[in-house]
Design a protein that fits this description.
Elements: H1 10-17, H2 36-43, E1 46-47, H3 56-64, E2 69-76, H4 77-83, H5 89-95, E3 104-109, H6 113-127, E4 131-136
Parallel strand pairs: 1-2, 2-3, 3-4
Helix pairs in contact: 4-6
This protein binds flavin mononucleotide.
Flavin mononucleotide binds near residues 50, 74 and 140.
């Protein structure tokens, strides 16, 4: 007898455990119309950015559990700048949503305004309509980060 295939990708794992975890099948897109305040109010629950935690699998789980929007981990604007046009793969892995994510909030951190400008425009260029908003990390008190 052959063993049943084990789920491999984050999406397969989620699908396999969704019923037991009472996760929904659908993800509601973040509202597209109106000003940011009314869109945030309509979304009701947001999943906050957490470095080392909010990877794509975690975001998908939160969205299927009802979060109206989920954030990336914090993303270095210097990583985007020094990665060049084609490099910086590790940095872009933090930014790019998985296929089932209809949209995403991207949090940037850094210290150089020029690099923020460049990163914001490149993130917008790559994500287009799937970019819900860009957030700026205004510092984190966790000792490892300070
Ligand atoms: C492990 C961990 C990592 C975090 N990383 C970030 C981060 O990268 N950027 C950020 O703005 N906040 C970060 N935070 C703060 C959270 O986004 C959130 O604002 C904080 O936990 C307060 O939310 P709460 O009142 O729902 O607990 C982090 C928090 C935790 C626990």
């Amino acid at each position: 007898m052959t063993e049943p295939m084990q789920p491999q990708t984050p999406v397969e794992v989620l699908d396999a455990f969704a019923p037991a975890a009472a996760l929904g099948e659908r993800i509601c897109p973040f509202p597209r119309e109106g000003d940011l305040r009314s869109r945030l109010e309509a979304a009701r629950y947001l999943m906050a950015p957490m470095a080392g935690v909010t990877d794509a699998a975690y975001r998908l789980m939160a969205r299927r559990a009802g979060a109206g929007l989920a954030y990336t981990e914090m993303v270095s604007v210097a990583g985007i700048h020094y990665g060049g046009e084609t490099g910086g793969q590790k940095t872009w892995e933090l930014v790019l949503p998985l296929d089932p994510e209809p949209d995403i909030a991207v949090q940037l951190f850094g210290s150089k305004p020029e690099q923020f400008r460049e990163a914001a425009s490149r993130v917008q260029e790559r994500l287009q309509g799937r970019l819900a908003l860009i957030d700026i990390n205004m510092a984190c008190p966790v000792p490892k980060v300070t």
